[in-house]
Amino acid sequence: MTDSWTEQHIPDQHGRVAVVTGANTGLGFETARMLAERGATVVLAVRDVGKGERAAARIEGEVAVQELDLTSLDSIRSAAADLRAAHPRIDLLVNNAGVMFPPRQTTADGFELQLGTNHLGHFALTGLLLDRLLPVPGSRVVTVSSTGHRIRAGIHFEDLQWERSYSRVAAYGQSKLANLMFTYELQRRLAPRGTTIAVAAHPGLSNTELTRSTPRALRVPVAWLTPLLTQEAEMGALPTLRAATDPAVSGGQYYGPGGRGEVRGYPRLVGSSAGSHDQSAQQRLWRISEELTGVTFPVGAAVVGGHRDS
């Protein structure tokens, strides 16, 4: 694999259909833009249709806008139905949208906002669209995680929704760890099919709107450090784009910036925390996610250690 993978390395995308969540701004916009400019038909799946349409007008290529509010299972089901009706096949689903460090809030379905948006919303959307990807050789589900999956991170099964106490930083870490666990478990379930793969990526530190909910005590240092440490969204989107398009990518891999600390730089294969590879925790999280969302996947449970998880 090349050490300086750039937008120019994206293969021709003509004939591919890509759905990108949170694509009206930041990393999602840049991901959608580069895919469309390489020939893909791209759907901007966004909460605010007006902002989505303005974003679509800035992209050269075949672009559509789909309303999607990841904080509402009703909206997710409606969006999935629209996407299924419009697209008999989907080549690429990019689970990009996310929230970071908000004060404690809940989704329409009562989930803690970060877990509900970053993980459970994308879990449900993926499950509802997966049968549009499964018949397509080379199709991919790419889920955007974060180096934050290592920060005070664990899956707090005893208080998954942070009802007893709340740390916005630890809750964010949990949601990003869940993104990786979901990817690894999904890949095991997809592997016997041999057509679709699940891959994860993270953008390092990128200068986007995602930091708008940074706790007050951190705002001044973040404001000073942002220009020094972060990279622009065009660079931050490259790990996602490599995971989505590089022919050398394999299922279950994780891509991030190649610079020191994975903060910035060209995208390369990176590692994730030991906790993210805990298969029993992955499977437990999967079962709970199915129960909470009411969405089951058209792929069987993985066979681990000689027995089938259920």
UniProtKB/TrEMBL annotation:
Keywords: Oxidoreductase. Transmembrane segments: none annotated. Gene3D superfamilies: NAD(P)-binding Rossmann-like Domain. Pfam families: adh_short. GO terms for molecular function: oxidoreductase activity. It comes from the Bacteria. PANTHER family: PHOSPHATIDYLINOSITOL-GLYCAN BIOSYNTHESIS CLASS F PROTEIN, PHOSPHATIDYLINOSITOL-GLYCAN BIOSYNTHESIS CLASS F PROTEIN-RELATED. Belongs to the short-chain dehydrogenases/reductases (SDR) family. This is NAD(P)-dependent dehydrogenase, short-chain alcohol dehydrogenase family.
